[in-house]
Each structure stands twice: as C-alpha cells, then as structure tokens.
What does this fold into?
Amino acid sequence: MIKYAAAWFLMSNVKDNIARVQDRIAAACRRAGRKPEEVRLIAVTKTVDAGRVREAYEAGLRDFGENRVQEGAAKRSALAGLDATWHLIGHLQSNKATAAAELFDWIHSVDSIRLAERLNHAAESNQKHLPILLQVNLAQEETKSGMNADEVKSAIENILAFDRLELRGLMLIPPMSENPGDARSWFRRLRKLAEEIRWTRATTRVAPTELSMGMSHDFEVAIEEGATMVRVGTAIFGERQTAT
It folds into this structure.
C-alpha cells in the first residue's frame, strides 16, 4: 500500500525534509514510469522566514512559490542575489498585476482574460516575457478562483493576442479531502484538458505542457497523474506559523 502522508517533517530540518520529498517524488515517478527530472519541485514559502528559505536554497532548491505579492516582495528583497526562480501561486488581483509581473518569474494563477491583459501590459513595460499558467477550477468551488474547462478553451484565443505572455500550462487546486487519493480524478481531468487543448490546436504557440498540481498532502498522486510542477510547503518547512 502506498503511503502518501507522513509526520517526519515536523521533527526534521529543511535539508533532510527536501531529501525525503525528493525521494518520494522519485518513487512516484517510478510508479508512473516517469523520470524525476520531469517534475519541478516548487518550495512554497508562505509565512516562512527568509533564513529558512535560504536553507532550502543551500540544500539545492531553486524554485520558490509565494501566495501574496507583498510577502513575495519582502522575501525577494531579503534574499537578493540568489539565483532563484520565483513563482506566484496564489490568487492575484488585477490591481496588483503590475507589481506581480515585475517581481515574479512565473504566474500560476491567471484566472481571467482581464488579468492576462494587465499582466501583458506590465510585462511589456518591464521589457520581459512572462510565463503563465491558467488556473482551472474544475469543481467550480465558490471559495476558489479559476476558470472552468470551457472558459479555458475560449480564453486561449484572447491570450494568444498578448505577445508578452507565454502560456505554458494549467494549474489546479482540487477540493480538499483528508484522503489524497480523492484528488486523483481532478488531476486526471486537468491532464486530459491539457491534452485536448494540445490536440485540437493547430498553432504551436498553445502547448500547455506544464501541469502545476499537487501539494504536500497529495503531490505523489499528482505526479502519478502527470504533474510537471508540484507545490510543496509543509513537507519541507513544517506546519505554517499563524499570527497571534
């Protein structure tokens, strides 16, 4: 029986945690007939202090994910000089698109054409090309952002008009469940949606090969279903600290 959750990360240091996560990624890849190199580990640094992020960097990680623009700005400033790639993985309001496009190397949470337009304008002002993922809300949960499958398909033509954006793939946060296996059907549906888009589009500009799906609780299931990016926080840094 496959075990998808463990409590070891609560007692271990960041370097050890990363090694264990990487071992779990490799094992999931073996089960799926994939190579570990196909999966990009993004360390989610929400509420994690800069010192512990630096530990993760020194342990070999280069991809870091933030949920909020303001926290990301402070952390990037504190860690200036690191050769790291920063991903915005949380909900992005349109009025913060300019700051996000300047601060982050990837945006995982594009959930509307309006937001894409603002990001494109900001990227043009910064003379950069910005890789983006479209956030998909397959379960149509009111508490989560994201397009449904039909909206994703119809949005592509508009997004192709934004020459500063590079559409790289899709992102998903499945409905929460204590059982990691419950997320499998949602991960599978996202993979099939990406495949459908690739097969039905004639242009090579639409190649959503990246699938950002899976977190500490369920990343092994996500890998088995085709994830190319997993967003892992707790399994690396431990339980988040909450403000009192």
In short: The first helix runs from residue 14 to 32. The CA atoms of residues 81 and 118 lie 28 Å apart. The chain has nine helices and eight strands. The beta strands are 40-44, 63-66, 85-88, 106-110, 130-136, 165-172, 210-212, 229-232.
